Amino acid sequence: MPNWGGGAKCGACEKTVYHAEEIQCNGRSFHKTCFLCMACRKALDSTTVAAHESEIYCKTCYGRKYGPKGVGFGQGAGCLSTDTGDHLGLNLQQGSPKPARPSTPTNPSKFAKMMVDVDKCPRCGKSVYAAEKIMGGGKPWHKTCFRCAICGKSLESTNVTDKDGELYCKVCYAKNFGPKGIGFGGLTQVEKKE
């Protein structure tokens, strides 16, 4: 029988879907507002939808419900979840209880050892990681902390000087620690002794 004056029926609400509001997935039509994950009700699009028979899910819920089970599966890389899957009708706590893990690793990884030995910035005292490290005066500095201690000017390798563990621009260093007299340190006249 022809469908007079309307479009296909929505796969979620069973009402008529007109062309302007239609999203098609797995051979079925949906309203844009009905194109939601059947488990968590998150809005879906073509990059986040995962279809199973006549059901649509976000990729996370689909993985939890239909993906492989066990430690490290269905949660995403490096993700720790306390989700029990109850809203999906799953019982992820099946089987024997897992033995408790020791609170301190018996064989720390190279990465863990590296994280302990992170350099500290002399200016702010916080950790300096490789992506933000600038060396000056034999010490690691943050890019934002690599400034003159007196005037606050941002420093570069061409205009930095150090004294007693602190950084200065060449101008401030010359004014404060350079030679004194005519032509040095800003003096223009020789003072007469009386």
From TrEMBL:
Superkingdom of this entry's organism?
Eukaryota
Record keywords = LIM domain, Metal-binding, Nucleus, Repeat, Zinc
The record's SUPFAM superfamilies line, in alphabetical order, gives: Glucocorticoid receptor-like (DNA-binding domain)
The record's principal subcellular location, in a coarse class, is: nucleus
Where in or outside the cell it occurs: the entry states: Nucleus
Please give the SMART domains that the UniProt record associates with this protein: LIM
Q: Which GO CC annotations does the UniProt entry carry?
A: nucleus; Z disc
Name the UniProt record assigns to this protein: CSRP3 protein
Origin species: Rostratula benghalensis
